[in-house]
Structures are given as C-alpha cells and as structure tokens.
C-alpha cells in the first residue's frame, strides 16, 4: 500500500462532520521544542512529534505554535479541518491546516491562550534566538534539539538551566552522524531523511526508523500524563 493509499484510507475512516467535543477533554501533552542552533532541525522535529501525537489522539489532529507558520496548501485531514474550526471559534485565527496539523502564529497568540483550549496536543516550536520563557511556563515536556554541529556540552548546560524552572528536557540529536562526542549524551537519536523531512512539511507522520523513534517518544510524552 502506498503513502497515497494509506492517506486516502485514513481520510475515509475519520469522521468528517461534527464539532470537537468540549466535554471532559482527555489530558493532552504540551511540548516545548527548543532549538540549540540555527537550522538544527527543531521545526522538523516539532512537526514529526506533533503528527505522531495527532495520530494517537482521539481527534486525529494536533496544534503547532510557530513563527510565520507555513504549510497551507497541503492536503489536510478531516481531524485538522475540525480542529481549525474549533480554534477559529475561540478567536485563535489565522489557522493554517496541513495534514494532521493546525499551525498557529506564535507572534499573534500566546502559548497560554492556545494551551487553555485543551482541544488537541500542543507543540510549541521555539525558534533559535526566541526567548523560551513563555513556552516553558506552560509546557509539561521540553525537547532540546541539536544537530551534530552543536557541542554536546552546550546541550548539557542548557538542559540543566531549563530544569531549574521547567520539566527536565529530553535531548534530541537530529541528522545524527557517527560522532564520538555525542555517544550517550542524547536521549533520542534521529538519522537524516529527506523523505521524512518532506512528510513533516506536509503535516504527516514520519515513516521508517525515524517514525519508530518519534512514535516511541510520542507514546512516552502521552503516557506520562497518566502517572
């Protein structure tokens, strides 16, 4: 079965009509994704995690708060369409939907205002150089994303600093290479994959090795809310 066939099947089994329920929403993770360097892959990781959480959520969608959101024009799944309507009804427009994701501009809406909706898992994409304080104040999980060019010592220092006032971060090494400096110093290691990056851009789950690793991470993020 091809990716197109899989997506068509997904679209058929997800209910198209009906509003998102406001009654007794389940616990949903709020994840801050912090990049440790420019172009380290933090936004891509944020979308992978968001899509994985969306696939596990009853509504089949997730929210990403990011600067200058892109992704409109990609095929959106029914769950994302419903979520976009729900966010719009709560004055959180403009909303761009792509795949399983709804993208909200972090320069327009605060992390707190989005998190307070409890409509879906929320991923806060904190770009490099953007103060993370607002995102960290509402997050119940923090992912620190590094590329191989980042010094492991920097990740350790930043993680220790964040842990003083927010949840202890999970360090994610993206586009991992054979590098002895990083041995045992990243909690999650993701290989480079242009195909997976393209899927992230359209709001879909990663496949293959990255999909398995991100799926396990998403399960851990979601599962910890129940303990």
Task: Report on the architecture of this protein.
There is one protein chain. The protein starts with a helix and ends with a helix. It has a single domain, classed as Rossmann fold, CATH 3.40.50.300. It has helices at residues 3-13, 42-56, 78-89, 111-115, 133-138, 152-163, 194-201, 208-223; strands at residues 30-35, 62-66, 95-98, 101-105, 122-126, 141-146, 170-173, 188-189. Helix 6 links the parallel strand 6 and strand 7. The protein has an eight-stranded mixed β-sheet with strand order 3-4-2-5-1-6-7-8, with helices on both faces. It is an alpha/beta fold and 227 residues long. The longest helix is centred in the C-terminal third of the chain and has 16 residues, at 208-223. The protein has eight helices and eight strands, in the order H-E-H-E-H-E-E-H-E-H-E-H-E-E-H-H.
Quick structural overview:
The chain is α/β, with parallel strands linked by helices. The protein contains eight helices and eight strands; from the N terminus they run H-E-H-E-H-E-E-H-E-H-E-H-E-E-H-H.
SSE inventory with pairings:
Layout: H1 3-13, E1 30-35, H2 42-56, E2 62-66, H3 78-89, E3 95-98, E4 101-105, H4 111-115, E5 122-126, H5 133-138, E6 141-146, H6 152-163, E7 170-173, E8 188-189, H7 194-201, H8 208-223
Parallel strand pairs: 1-5, 1-6, 2-4, 2-5, 6-7, 7-8
Antiparallel strand pairs: 3-4
Helix pairs in contact: 2-7, 2-8
């Amino acid at each position: 079965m091809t990716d197109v066939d899989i997506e068509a099947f997904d679209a058929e089994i997800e209910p198209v009509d009906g509003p998102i329920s406001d009654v007794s929403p389940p616990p949903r993770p709020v994840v801050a994704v912090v990049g440790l360097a420019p172009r380290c892959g933090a936004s891509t990781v944020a979308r992978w995690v968001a899509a994985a959480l969306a696939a596990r959520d009853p509504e089949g969608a997730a929210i990403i708060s990011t600067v200058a959101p892109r992704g409109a024009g990609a095929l959106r799944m029914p769950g994302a369409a419903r979520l976009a309507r729900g966010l719009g009804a709560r004055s959180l427009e403009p909303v761009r939907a792509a795949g399983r994701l709804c993208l909200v501009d972090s320069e327009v809406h605060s992390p707190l205002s989005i998190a307070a909706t409890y409509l879906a898992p929320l991923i806060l994409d904190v770009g490099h150089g953007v103060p993370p304080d607002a995102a960290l104040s509402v997050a119940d999980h923090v992912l620190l994303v590094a590329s191989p060019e980042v010094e492991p010592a920097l990740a350790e220092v930043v993680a220790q600093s964040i842990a003083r006032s927010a949840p202890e971060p999970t360090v994610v090494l993206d586009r991992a290479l054979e590098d002895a400096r990083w041995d045992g110093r990243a909690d999650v290691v993701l290989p480079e994959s242009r195909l997976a990056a393209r899927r992230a851009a359209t709001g879909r789950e990663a496949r293959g090795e990255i999909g398995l690793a991100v799926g396990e991470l998403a399960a851990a993020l979601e599962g910890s809310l129940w303990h």
